[in-house]
Amino acid sequence: VLENRNLQDLIKPQKVEFRSLNFNSTLHWQPGRAREARDTVYFVQYKVYGQSTWQNKDDCWGIQNHVCDLTNETSDIQEPYYGRVKAASAGVYSDWSLSCRFSPWRETMIGPPMVTVVHSNKSIILKLQAPRSPYKRKRGSKIPMTNYYDLLYQVFIINNLLDEQHRVLVYEGKDKVIKIEDLRPGISYCIMAKTYVPMLDRSSAYSSRQCTML
Description:
Layout: H1 2-11, E1 14-21, E2 24-30, E3 41-48, E4 55-63, E5 67-69, E6 81-89, E7 92-93, E8 97-98, H2 104-107, E9 114-119, E10 124-129, E11 132-136, E12 142-144, E13 152-159, E14 167-173, E15 177-180, E16 188-197, E17 202-203, E18 210-213
Antiparallel strand pairs: 1-2, 2-5, 3-4, 3-6, 6-7, 6-8, 9-10, 10-15, 11-12, 13-14, 13-16, 16-17, 16-18
């Protein structure tokens, strides 16, 4: 019994947490201290805060991964959720390990906008597209994150003659098409953009660089 108890403690999952980008929400955990227990499998349950019963996540029942996709299970983005994980090895089951409370609307990270660059002789025209959620409209298209938040776009320009860190904010607002004018021909400029959520005071990562020579 003591050996079983030890194994139970050693295989118990650690650091159970939700990670979420644009409402793509996954539960992550780390294996217990018994690293050598190769045959360990994991079982995942979830529930809405305040509910008494836990739901099994069938796709994550007896899996060897350390991640479980709960995007569909957390689609009511205003609700808070919990996830929990237990491990089994050699016929011994650990106790459950619980995540912190997770509220998708408050906690999901917003991705950067998609940026398309079109240039004319002395200006650059940008087309910005909001990141999309995994949730679909009746017609099948994915719902953009602008449906859930009041988003602003921040556009930065890097003049390649200058230091890479010298990013200048040239636009902040909601327009999807932006014109940056009075640029010098023959110089390479790079554009990066972020999504900003004023209500949560949170910015996305930078979009990938789009460089163009006028």
